[in-house]
Design goal:
The structure is a single chain. This protein is of the alpha+beta class and 224 residues long. The protein folds into 2 domains: 2-143, Ribonuclease III domain (Ribonuclease iii, N-terminal Endonuclease Domain, Chain A); 153-223, Double Stranded RNA Binding Domain (2-Layer Sandwich). Helix content is 54%, strand content 13%. It has helices at 2-8, 15-21, 36-57, 62-73, 75-84, 95-99, 106-124, 126-133, 140-145, 153-161, 204-218; strands at 148-149, 169-177, 184-191, 194-201, 222-223. The protein has a 3-stranded antiparallel beta sheet with strand order 2-3-4, covered by helices on one side. A two-stranded parallel ribbon has the order 1-5. It starts with a helix and ends with a strand. 28% of the residues are buried.
Length: 224
């Protein structure tokens, strides 16, 4: 597990915390032995750290801070953070989850990321958890700009395009490959019939979201 600890920048004193954080309920008998309780704690630790960071760094009204925090701690965002550190490769899954693509399932990775936060918190305290979380935060200037888009990229892209009523967005699945239960789809997003973004995913919905995300990035929006 040393290589993973190097990747996340934290070395555990008690590796049982890390082991529990990486254990999905499908792998063990009984949820008490899985990462679900750690997920509960990690959610709270994450909220405290992000709230304090936003409070200190942004001179904004409470309403705007709340909206930004919601974006930074939502499932889509945590899934992206988890992918960034290769968390899916480390999770212990039951055979059923493994065979149906659980290692890349958004909810599993997002929950495991919260569990990992809790494991670091229990092992090294709040400061260690903070040091792990904050490098994932977007630059302050991005947060201030209002151009940070996290989560539902299709809806966000639609809102951007709707500023010009004559423009029209559509999606097409341009490729699919792999076995029936583990297909990878590729989608294009088109603006007035012209491709402006391409993305892939384990479902058509995920592929369309990835295509919308690329389009937003190419338009100058910060995505996470």
């Amino acid at each position: 597990m040393n290589s993973f600890e190097r990747r996340i920048g934290y070395t555990f004193q008690k590796h049982e915390y890390l082991d529990r954080a990486l254990t999905h309920s499908s792998f063990v008998n009984g949820k008490q032995n899985s990462n679900e309780r750690l997920e509960f704690l990690g959610d709270s630790v994450l909220s405290v750290v992000v709230s304090k960071y936003l409070f200190e760094m942004l001179d904004m009204p409470e309403g705007r801070l709340t909206k930004i925090r919601a974006k930074l701690v939502c499932e889509d965002t945590l899934y992206g953070f988890a992918k960034r550190i290769g968390l899916g490769e480390q999770i212990k899954l039951g055979k059923g989850e493994e065979s149906t693509g659980g290692r890349d399932r958004k909810s599993i990775l997002a929950d495991a990321f919260e569990a990992l936060i809790a494991a670091i918190y229990l092992d090294g305290g709040l400061e260690s958890a903070r040091d792990f979380i904050l490098p994932f935060m977007p630059p302050v200037e991005t947060l201030k700009s209002g151009k940070l888009i996290i989560g539902d990229y299709k809806t966000s892209l639609q809102e951007v395009i709707q500023q010009n009523p004559e423009e029209h967005i559509s999606y097409e699945i341009c490729n699919e490959k792999g076995e029936a239960h583990r297909k990878i789809f590729t989608a294009n997003v088109l603006l007035n019939g012209q491709t402006i973004g391409t993305g892939s995913g384990s479902s058509k919905k995920e592929a369309e979201q990835a295509a919308a995300k690329e389009a937003l990035s190419l338009m100058g929006y910060e995505t996470n």
